[in-house]
């Protein structure tokens, strides 16, 4: 599938992360529904914006999730993830998501979503 994107008028940082989900068709279908447009709780989206996340996309292949997270240029990943964990309903959302993920229920979002190393970029 291809996705048409708008060009960003200002610089930003991009983070890519990976996560393993439970390999269960019913759980995967529910996980997809919980991430459908407009389905994420408003407090979760608001909290992400407050810590400097400009945009986020999650892709699935089988039971592997891949996240692309675009942030403000001066984004400090560790500090932002700590701040995000204190936002309203974030702990509740993380606990719910843990039931679909191959992780422990008390793991933080930063512990679940592993930063990926970029090994190639098509030059300009």
From TrEMBL:
Gene3D superfamilies according to UniProt: 3.30.70.100
GO MF entry, a single one: racemase and epimerase activity, acting on carbohydrates and derivatives
Alphabetical list of InterPro entries matching this protein: Carb_Metab_Mutarotase, Dimeric_a/b-barrel, Rham/fucose_mutarotase
SUPFAM superfamilies the record matches: Dimeric alpha+beta barrel
Domain of life: Bacteria
UniProt xrefs under Pfam families: rhaM
Protein name as annotated: L-rhamnose mutarotase
Organism: Hymenobacter setariae
